[in-house]
Design a protein that fits this description.
heterodimer, A: 87 residues, mainly beta, Immunoglobulin-like, B: 373 residues, alpha+beta, Alpha-Beta Plaits, Ubiquitin-like (UB roll), 5-stranded antiparallel sheet, 4-stranded antiparallel sheet, 7 helices
C-alpha cells in the first residue's frame, strides 16, 4: 500500500530515517493540514490549534478551523492555514 | 449520506483534554469550536453509547445529540414502522392461513374407523384450501367407500373439517345376539301379555328398573332352548316421587342488582388484556363465561367475562301451615317432571315428614304404563 512518508524516506539518502518516526506534518495548499504522531491537542479554537509532539509543541494559526478527524496520534485540520510554528 | 455519524454538542471547560482522552478510544470527526465553552463533533454511530459515557466521565455536559446516515434512518424506520409492518404481515398471514383446513375431526365412530376415514379424506383432498374442498363430494365418497357408515355429514367449521358419522346398525335379528327384556321403571306389575320369550315375572310382582322381565329364549316340549327376540306388553303401576322441604328458619342470599363485569382476553391460557376492577362488594356471587373470539387454531383468542353480583343475606322465618299448599304444589310439580307423554295419572298422594324446624313433603304420582318396551 502506498505510504506518502515511506515514499519520501526512500527518496532521501544519508538521512536518519528514525527521525521520521517522531511526527510528520503535511500542509496541503494551506487548506488542509495532516499531522501524524501528535501527542494530544492542547488548544482548539476557530483560529488556533496547538498540539504536543515528542519534543515540543506545534501551534497552527489560521481561520475557520474544523478538526476534520482526530485519533490518538493523527489529526486532519481543515481551514485557512496561515502559519505553522514548532516550539 | 452513507456515513452513519452521530453529532454531539457539548459544553464545558478544558474540552481539549476531554477530546484527547476520547480520541484514544474512538475516532473524532469534524470538531468545531463554537465558543469557549461550546463545541460540536461527530463520531461513528456505532460508538455513540461509548462516547456518551466517555463525555460524562470527562466532566462535559452533552447539550444535544443528533444522528445521520442510512443505517440510523433504517433503524429509526424499523422501530417506527416495524410494529406496523409486523401487524400487516400478521394480518396477511392470518388471512392466508384462515383459508386453510388445519384439522380433520371425525366423530361418531370407533377410533379405528375414525382414523381410517381421516386417512381416506386426507388422501382424497385436492388441497388444504377451503375453497377447493367439496363437502358434498366427500360425503358421497365416504358413504361409497365405507360400508359401516350409514350416513355422514361433512362441514367446514373454522379451520376444521368436521365429519360426523352415523354407523350402520344391524337389526338385532341379524346380529343373532338377543338381550332380555328389562324393566325401564320401578313399579308393580298389573298386566302381562307375552308375545315371545320366557316370562321372568308375574302379575303383582314389584320390580325395579333394570330387572329382567322376559328372557330371550323359548323352550319346546323336549326342553330344547331356542333364542328369540323377547317381546311382551307388561303394564305396571309406576310411582313417580319427588319431595320438597320447608324450613321454619333459613338464611337466603339475594342479589341486590349491583354487579361488576371484568373482561379478559386470553391467548391460550395467557391473559393478554384485562380490565379488572377493584371489588367493592362485601358479599358477592361470581358467574364466569368464556367464548372463543376466533375460530382458528393458530390464534386461540378467548373472551372471558366474569360478573360479580352483589348479594345480601336475609333471614326468613315462616310458618309451615301457611306455606303448606305451596310446598305440596312444589313437590307435585317436581314429580310431574318425570311424567312422559301419554302417561295417564291414576292416583296422587303425599305425606309429610316432620323434623326439627323442617318439614319434608313427599309427593307420589301413580301411573300405569308398559314398562317392557
Amino acid at each position: 500500500m502506498f505510504n506518502f512518508f515511506d515514499e519520501i524516506k526512500n527518496k532521501v539518502t544519508n538521512f536518519d530515517h528514525n527521525l521520521l518516526n517522531d511526527y510528520n506534518i503535511v500542509n496541503l495548499s494551506g487548506k488542509l493540514l495532516y499531522v501524524e504522531g501528535h501527542q494530544g491537542v492542547t488548544v482548539l479554537s476557530n483560529e488556533t490549534v496547538a498540539f504536543k509532539i515528542k519534543k515540543g509543541r506545534v501551534v497552527v494559526e489560521g481561520e475557520n478551523f474544523i478538526l476534520n478527524e482526530l485519533t490518538c496520534n493523527t489529526l486532519l485540520l481543515q481551514g485557512k492555514i496561515n502559519k505553522v510554528e514548532i516550539f | 449520506m452513507f456515513k452513519n455519524r452521530t453529532t454531539i454538542k457539548v459544553s464545558g471547560l478544558n474540552q481539549e483534554r476531554a477530546l484527547n482522552n476520547i480520541s484514544k478510544k474512538v475516532k473524532i470527526f469534524k470538531f468545531k469550536r463554537e465558543d469557549e465553552k461550546h463545541s460540536q463533533f461527530e463520531v461513528e454511530f456505532k460508538h455513540t453509547k461509548q462516547v456518551k459515557k466517555l463525555i460524562e466521565e470527562q466532566g462535559l455536559e452533552i447539550v444535544s445529540i443528533s444522528h445521520s446516515g442510512y443505517f440510523y434512518k433504517l433503524k429509526k424506520a424499523f422501530l417506527r414502522y416495524g410494529i406496523i409492518a409486523g401487524i400487516i404481515i400478521s394480518i396477511i398471514f392470518y388471512i392466508v392461513q384462515f383459508n386453510l383446513i388445519l384439522k380433520i375431526d371425525v366423530r361418531g365412530g370407533e377410533s379405528v374407523e375414525c382414523q381410517e376415514i381421516k386417512n381416506f379424506v386426507k388422501e382424497n383432498m385436492n388441497s388444504n384450501f377451503k375453497s377447493s374442498i367439496s363437502t358434498e363430494n366427500l360425503e358421497i365418497m365416504i358413504k361409497n367407500n365405507f360400508d359401516y357408515v350409514s350416513s355422514v355429514s361433512v362441514a367446514i367449521i373454522g379451520q376444521s373439517l368436521l365429519i360426523n358419522l352415523n354407523p350402520a346398525v344391524l337389526p338385532e335379528e341379524m346380529e343373532d345376539d338377543f338381550q332380555p327384556l328389562v324393566s325401564g321403571y320401578d313399579g308393580m306389575i298389573t298386566k302381562i301379555n307375552l308375545i315371545q320369550g320366557t316370562l321372568n315375572v308375574n302379575e303383582g310382582d314389584i320390580v325395579q328398573k333394570g330387572d329382567i322381565l322376559v328372557l330371550p329364549y323359548t323352550t319346546d316340549a323336549e326342553g330344547k332352548l331356542y333364542q328369540v327376540q323377547p317381546k311382551a306388553e307388561i303394564y305396571a303401576d309406576v310411582w313417580l316421587t319427588a319431595s320438597s322441604s320447608h324450613y321454619d328458619y333459613k338464611i337466603v342470599s339475594l342479589r341486590t342488582g349491583n354487579f361488576v363485569t371484568d373482561i379478559e382476553v386470553l391467548l391460550g391460557d395467557l391473559v393478554i388484556y384485562t380490565n379488572n376492577h377493584d371489588l367493592i362488594f362485601e358479599e358477592y356471587e361470581v358467574e364466569s363465561h368464556s367464548k372463543p373470539l376466533t375460530k382458528n387454531l393458530l390464534l386461540p383468542l378467548t373472551l372471558r367475562k366474569t360478573i360479580y353480583f352483589e348479594i345480601e343475606t336475609e333471614e326468613i322465618i315462616s310458618n309451615f301451615d301457611v306455606e303448606k299448599p305451596r310446598i305440596i304444589e312444589e313437590a307435585r310439580q317436581k314429580a310431574l317432571i318425570f311424567l312422559e307423554e301419554n302417561d295417564i295419572i291414576i292416583q296422587e298422594s303425599y305425606f309429610i315428614n316432620e323434623g326439627a324446624g323442617c318439614h319434608i313433603v313427599n309427593y307420589t304420582i301413580t301411573i300405569n304404563k308398559n314398562i317392557g318396551e
